[in-house]
């Protein structure tokens, strides 16, 4: 009789909680965030009245929960920041709980933030979790006359298929647009990494080089700050340090000129 009651309780739980999952690899629960990037971009607006674009680039927040608290407190103390970009590896294992923990802390920022996907975010069912919580893996937005192109460069996670990064999509995003003077790219894996599809490096760099007004490409992944240029390219590539190293980049675009500085916290 006792076993029958337990079975009945289990069945009722399943059918009455159809929006919940019970699995280490679940992609949602009753407290799940949804479409954070889109919501924050709506909040951000287009910056049409803003002649200075001031933003922060950080990355690799995985396993850095205490540092993330210190991070948002530091960012909130800096005046006139427009938004924050997290350059991938929000998580270590691509799990819902990790993404929720980080989102809960980053939601304490007083300015909007968006993320790009990292290679660790693609493990397990991380791709599905990320898409539901944050949105598309390739997207762009315009702010203050600058187009920010956020995209997936985690080639190894796709077995170097030749489709990641998506060069045709990038080229389409880089087409001239009314009201856009400059372009900035943000992704996780930099083109000097073994995790980036080497067959695509030349076309990737050419897409940026051939775009008038292209300013810079920001990345994460290596956990160390680095500036570099690819062969026969004038485009600067910059890797931001990891959250765990308590450092981020504060970038500023004024009159089509970009500058940035490393900030410790």
Tell me about this structure:
- The chain has one domain (53-264): Metallo-dependent phosphatases (Purple Acid Phosphatase, chain A, domain 2), CATH 3.60.21.
- The chain is an alpha/beta fold and 265 residues long.
- A six-stranded mixed beta sheet has the order 4-5-6-7-9-8, with no helix packed on it.
- It is globular.
- It has helices spanning 2-16, 36-44, 65-76, 96-106, 126-133, 167-173, 201-209; strands at 52-58, 83-86, 113-115, 139-143, 146-150, 182-186, 214-219, 226-228, 237-239, 247-254, 257-264.
- Strand 10 and strand 11 form a beta hairpin.
- Helix 3 runs parallel beside helix 4 (96-106).
- The protein is 27% helix and 22% strand.
- This is Calcineurin-like phosphoesterase family protein.
- It comes from Albibacterium bauzanense.
- GO terms for molecular function: hydrolase activity.
- Residues 54-224 form the Calcineurin-like phosphoesterase domain.
Itemize the secondary structure elements and their pairings:
Blueprint: H1 2-16, H2 36-44, E1 52-58, H3 65-76, E2 83-86, H4 96-106, E3 113-115, H5 126-133, E4 139-143, E5 146-150, H6 167-173, E6 182-186, H7 201-209, E7 214-219, E8 226-228, E9 237-239, E10 247-254, E11 257-264
Parallel strand pairs: 1-2, 2-3, 5-6, 6-7, 7-9
Antiparallel strand pairs: 1-10, 4-5, 8-9, 10-11
Helix pairs in contact: 3-4
